């Protein structure tokens, strides 16, 4: 090396100034990516837009520790956009709700409600509203078999299986005002 | 898409964009909203393809394209019409393709009159009904269905999704002129229709130069033909207009004329915005459809199954088997209770009576006609047009169920919405009972998403949901069980369907989670012995097969979950058939029979994809052939043939009754057989082509709560406003404005204006502006940027204001909602709102807090 | 250490779509906090610059005054013009001043030739901060310790790509060994250069003021347009050899002496 008087220039040339290996701490030496400690890698798909990027979900002790692109996917080839890259944050967001919240009519605040009780109350309301608003036939005698008292919006971020059960149940209940983001 | 080609889905897949020689991105900001899919556009660019972006704003997509053209929002049909004009006047169409694979040679009823003759109307206009009688749009001498006009009105949306089935037309019955010279043939009518869409006229409507239009048109033509292909990419920049379906029709016409459908590097790539928005249309949570694009029965004409089938099933093409699809669905719904004697339970289905789409429902809700509402992974308080109206409607409910990951605005409107802040609504006066139920995230449940290229991909469960979090699958299953239990002893006729509903699914775990694969197996379908089906061609009319969604039949063939197929891309050829499963029949490019010439030979070696193997006497190639495997290219159907047997060996559009691509739509659309330029509901410009300004069939809602800005002549709202999404956020923001790492990247609601508009209105970069329409006044930070271009329209300068619509009042990053500004005005075919072009005013400073 | 064994980044800005996936993937992997929630008014850039908690930063440069051009530009745009995007990162200099001045040995040169701060050793003296000719390294407000891109040292040890390079949707951020990357970059420059004369490699020259970067760039304008120093020099170049010897002689005590006697070093 020509510039032997310039210490910086020697940084990559052996390690005379203990800037390399000699400076490495024990922790640095043992460092490994946290994904390496995962118990399993679960194959998933990004929940944001419709590109359909593959995701690998790293799970340790039944908890998600990282979500990354799946290099196997022929569509995304392991890559993710900023939203996809934030997916772990989405599913573990401190803002997520974990309990049912209930607001009674004219109420001023949320109240607690057990999940099973909530489903039971919703079932009661569906049954009551149907009974109250049921239309057997139209004024001119055409078969209607429906309620216009209940509507639903949602589905574009749901699984096909979920949309299937929703539409099947609603249809059997005579609910026709079923819509999702595809219309919006 | 459905009307033109037969199926309501993207004709190609994202990876195939790399094979394009030219890509026109229009009505889409792909680099920002589908960044990872955009890698395939970049691949094409690096291979030498020309990438063109036409958009009101210079976006991150424009930045990496070869050619960007600013255009006035709402003028796209004029632009596309200009391209059609260019193709026809310069005879740049792919003649052999056009003559054989499209309805260009078909002669149309001589009673037809064009918008050119009637100053903006097609023949058949009924001013009283505000609708068209479409009889004069039919093929010449074809037996027109008696109720054709009626059908056009009531089944248009369905037909847009499903295609031209239900039309009693077979190709061999049509009167054709293969020289394309007859003045009443589609080709000549098209020419006449677009005669006035000259570069000069179009440039004035769009605010571009004639040379720019010619340049784009020439690039498309130069990159189409035997040796080359061009692709189109669009998203909601095209659909969200009062004439949105016709935007896509215009693109379909261009791609048919240039011979780009069904071929590698060609096609129309519809980019959907949500992870399974395609799936939620295929297995619809939509009012007018049943799974697999089977229409919902209507009150009146559809009292019994046979009349329903007679009305909708075609005699030719694959829709001739609609009886088998429908009966199999009813068997999946009602199981053993569905018998031939009770018409398989067809009578239990509810009937529709007109438009029950989202906006109509919200208006009914506002009127107190809707008592209960399920809001599932959706946030209308922010995400739907006219947010104020949406929130006021929610306040009129008896009960509301909101299921989401976080407490979104639609769950909290009763205590912290803008109407509460302004005093317009008072919490203690809102009766709505609200149930907020926490949802499980995609990592906490398993199931399939259908992406933008019709590909089903399975996601596995990685962790158990915590607390009360529950998948929608489990919620609806348990709700259904609970309702069935409560109605067990009911003798009410209205409860027969819910009591007969087949609702038994395997569950596991202490929380009795439903086995999603069991539901997928039901969707796929089973034979009489309960064995999984492998193809929809196995479906029967006698009730021996059950199938929850016929187009998904095969996804669970041999009992294997094909949506979970994960052979790595690098271990397969580029089409990658062993990754996920695409409907129909694991096919990646639709109508791929058209990638070969009428004799079954590839149009060129370079664009080889699917072809006829003479030795084996079958179709072969890189993809699953979208054709009967052994149908000879020279097959000519006998005159009385039905179903697929009625389609010739050179008719690639097998879902269409006549097997060909529809340049002309004799039915299926409410607003015309050809696209025509109409101004948006709100426009600062009068229609330069016709006296009729806007789409005459558009859905308007004239009522006090939904005022429209005054028309072109008014100075109150002189600017165009257009909404959009940013890479850093997602829709109404519930999944992104709540996250620190995305919120910091786009932390505040802003609007984008040109320096010229900023000077005109005293706006400063980084300062505040108030945006005003007759619906709302909202405030936004200002970005002054030369990426926004003032346009010359006639002798006026027109300014456009851009606003991302993600913001609302809850989350880490909060702000006013752009959608509050918009009116409710809809496309008449699919009831989608016009959010991409409206008018507004903009003023410096923050909005009043009063 | 030779270029063959050194690992680094080649950021090809002609492929960048400004999506900021690199910023998020980096923060997500390295568990870095958000910096704040204010609109900057500077195009689509709201994170401003690299910092102790932002290790990838995408610059947005709106150029709409020039002439019409080329590969990444809108030919038809009336005034010409383009929107440049570039993802900036620590340069992992061949001659890294931050490393030179670090009195504690917290900064070190890894087996991949990258420059990494060791959290367990850094005492937050901040010496490295002004030493960096690019203003990259910074003290984290939350921990007080120096921090910057590690080129995902932990991932590299396991044979994985850095998080940003893995996420990048358009391969604007390419990871690999430096000799191969430089070869690739040279070819790319030849291709892009025929269309855009302003195309240039930044940091690929081993004779530059820092001996070349371990993370270098293909730009389509001069570096200063992107907020990058046009001719960066290693700040320790002119310091006497003694200084370094002293600093390296021992541990914190020696460091303290240096701090007291030499005083705060100048940035440039």
Which SSEs are present, and which pair or pack?
The complex is a heterotrimer of chains A (184), B (850) and C (268).
Chain A (H helix, E strand, L loop, with lengths): L25 H5 L9 E6 L8 E7 L2 E7 L12 H4 L1 H5 L9 E3 L7 E2 L2 H19 E4 L5 E11 L6 H14 L1 E5 L5
Parallel strand pairs in A: 7-8
Antiparallel strand pairs in A: 1-2, 2-3, 4-5, 6-7
Chain B lengths: L1 H4 L16 E5 L3 H4 L5 H8 L3 E6 L4 H4 L3 E4 L5 H14 L5 H7 L23 E2 L4 E2 L15 H15 L23 H8 L5 H8 L3 H13 L7 E5 L1 H4 L4 H14 L10 E3 L8 H4 L6 E2 L3 E2 L9 H8 L9 H13 L23 H9 L5 E5 L3 H4 L3 H8 L4 E6 L4 H8 L1 H5 L10 E6 L8 E4 L4 E5 L12 H15 L9 H5 L6 E2 L4 E2 L1 H9 L56 E2 L27 E4 L4 E4 L77 E2 L18 E6 L15 H4 L6 E4 L1 H7 L6 E5 L4 E8 L6 E3 L2 E3 L1 E5 L20 E2 L11 E7 L6
Parallel strand pairs in B: 1-2, 1-6, 2-3, 6-7, 10-11, 11-12, 21-27, 22-24
Antiparallel strand pairs in B: 4-5, 8-9, 13-14, 14-17, 15-16, 18-19, 20-28, 21-29, 23-24, 23-29, 25-26
Chain C lengths: L6 E6 L8 H10 L25 E8 L18 E8 L7 H5 L5 E3 L5 E3 L10 H4 L6 E2 L6 E2 L5 H5 L5 H5 L5 E5 H16 L6 E3 L12 E5 L21 H9 L2 H11 L6
Parallel strand pairs in C: 1-10
Antiparallel strand pairs in C: 1-8, 2-3, 4-5, 6-7, 9-10
